[in-house]
Amino acid sequence: MGLGAAMALALGDPPADYASIAAVGLFVALMCVCIVVGHLLEENRWMNESITALFIGLGTGAVILFASSGKHSRVLVFSEDLFFIYLLPPIIFNAGFQVKKKQFFRNFITITLFGAVGTLISFTVISLGALGLISRLNIGALELGDYLALGAIFSSTDSVCTLQVLSQDETPFLYSLVFGEGVVNDATSVVLFNAIQNFDPGNISSAKLLNFIGSFLYLFGSSTILGVASGLLSAYTIKKLYFGRHSTDREVSIMMLMAYLSYMLAELLDLSGILTVFFCGIVMSHYTWHNVTESSRVTTKHAFATLSFISETFLFLYVGMDALDIEKWKIVGQTYSPVKSIALSSTILALVLVSRAAFVFPLSFVSNLTKKTPNGKISFRQQVIVWWAGLMRGAVSIALAYNKFTRSGHTQQPSNAIMITSTISVVLFSTIVFGLLTKPLIRLLIPSRHLSREPSALSEPSSPKSFFEQLAANSPGHPDLENGISLRRPASLRFLLVSPARSVHHYWRKFDDSFMRPVFGGRGFVPFVPGSPTESSLPLLPGNEN
């Protein structure tokens, strides 16, 4: 041992894992590059930050591949744990935290119809298509369970990329439909995939089908209840203990940790962490966020958005670099001709296009039959955008493919390797091509004069005065800011049938004001830091005594 090493150990410094340090350092540097390039391309009508990160990841992978003389192209092996446990939760939570709740719940039946029934239709079309078409390509010994797994893998949309290509402020209706569908879709796809893992082709019965339907309903309901309960627990804890009187850091920390805890509890209980943390975010934005101090509201709003942004950037860099993993491509190149690889990827892509059309247009027609007013119906142009924006496949598809066709990220079986490379090819093509064309398609089908600009439900106040004015305006009896209309009491059964969304919202507000807010806080509960300028300069708003 050298003198330097001995001195380092004597001083208590552990031996450094330089490979890990180099990998993390490279990703941090690349994320900085992505932020700078994304800023420069902010006004570009084609590019968005996810595609920028994907291109930079591909470019970096190519450089590493060249520098290592074709030995490897990545510094990290794709890990399902890294994706599902660390990267996905902050992205989905922030989406729930920032979502326009009224728009989301007004379209909740349609979202559930697309996300659950639509996913089952997509799964059926892709599985049958794979069984009929891919089996003819003679790529290897694939079993019925493998074709069904392909249906589950490619029926999963990329809800993360949806956040980038659709604007919640400009197209709130389309955003709530496509992203809401994506959240339910991810949960449904994972349930399908897990059911297929335990699938026994020799034991198919109606009882098995009913068991699957029951399992899905249990998972959906239990995950939602757990997310709502976690959000309400955080709201009650912060309202009663009021951490802000001593330290705003504590209330910010408890919000973050309880949100993450809800996801981990769902995973431990074999529920959908995606659904749980999404609904936890919705409840926290409705109650918990209003129970913390003014400075904590600004902090949490930006902290959650920043964590989500960093996770998204890291994720697309990760996928881009992993796409050029030479191990799988070498196996495929030595076993199959380029024509067969292209044919497989093209077949899967065609099945994705057809399977999405197979449920978007019919289910939109069914949804429109239940709408009494033209404003609530999905126009044909909007249906085309919903169909197109949901064609992108992302990291969930890659993670499920790795789970099915590899062990610890590696495989030596050619049929499994070509499935991984085809999945990567479809993900890259759909994300880049469909993602690049989504914004121009929206501008083509929905002219800019029809795009609305709505303030976010958690938009940052320009001053403490405007902040409390906004709270006062949101108190019971005031016009609703998100719709710009006053809520009227339903005068008859006919009104309830003609305007069910508005009527349900009226009764929910009544229940919320009478029972929920007195216990869990929310709008109208405005905490004050003792001795702060806001305490002495602003009057107490109605409802603060709760």
UniProtKB/TrEMBL annotation:
<feature type="transmembrane region" description="Helical">
    <location>
        <begin position="216"/>
        <end position="236"/>
    </location>
</feature>
<keyword id="KW-0633">Potassium transport</keyword>
<feature type="transmembrane region" description="Helical">
    <location>
        <begin position="417"/>
        <end position="437"/>
    </location>
</feature>
<feature type="transmembrane region" description="Helical">
    <location>
        <begin position="20"/>
        <end position="41"/>
    </location>
</feature>
<keyword id="KW-0915">Sodium</keyword>
<keyword id="KW-0472">Membrane</keyword>
<dbReference type="GO" id="GO:0006885">
    <property type="term" value="P:regulation of pH"/>
</dbReference>
<feature type="transmembrane region" description="Helical">
    <location>
        <begin position="342"/>
        <end position="365"/>
    </location>
</feature>
<keyword id="KW-0630">Potassium</keyword>
<dbReference type="GO" id="GO:0006813">
    <property type="term" value="P:potassium ion transport"/>
</dbReference>
<feature type="domain" description="Cation/H+ exchanger transmembrane">
    <location>
        <begin position="38"/>
        <end position="442"/>
    </location>
</feature>
<keyword id="KW-1133">Transmembrane helix</keyword>
<keyword id="KW-0812">Transmembrane</keyword>
<keyword id="KW-0813">Transport</keyword>
<protein>
    <recommendedName>
        <fullName>Cation/H+ exchanger transmembrane domain-containing protein</fullName>
    </recommendedName>
</protein>
<dbReference type="InterPro" id="IPR004709">
    <property type="entry name" value="NaH_exchanger"/>
</dbReference>
<feature type="transmembrane region" description="Helical">
    <location>
        <begin position="111"/>
        <end position="135"/>
    </location>
</feature>
<feature type="transmembrane region" description="Helical">
    <location>
        <begin position="257"/>
        <end position="284"/>
    </location>
</feature>
<dbReference type="InterPro" id="IPR018422">
    <property type="entry name" value="Cation/H_exchanger_CPA1"/>
</dbReference>
<keyword id="KW-0406">Ion transport</keyword>
<dbReference type="GO" id="GO:0016020">
    <property type="term" value="C:membrane"/>
</dbReference>
<feature type="transmembrane region" description="Helical">
    <location>
        <begin position="53"/>
        <end position="70"/>
    </location>
</feature>
<keyword id="KW-0739">Sodium transport</keyword>
<dbReference type="InterPro" id="IPR006153">
    <property type="entry name" value="Cation/H_exchanger_TM"/>
</dbReference>
<feature type="transmembrane region" description="Helical">
    <location>
        <begin position="304"/>
        <end position="321"/>
    </location>
</feature>
<feature type="transmembrane region" description="Helical">
    <location>
        <begin position="82"/>
        <end position="99"/>
    </location>
</feature>
<feature type="transmembrane region" description="Helical">
    <location>
        <begin position="385"/>
        <end position="405"/>
    </location>
</feature>
<dbReference type="Pfam" id="PF00999">
    <property type="entry name" value="Na_H_Exchanger"/>
</dbReference>
<dbReference type="GO" id="GO:0015385">
    <property type="term" value="F:sodium:proton antiporter activity"/>
</dbReference>
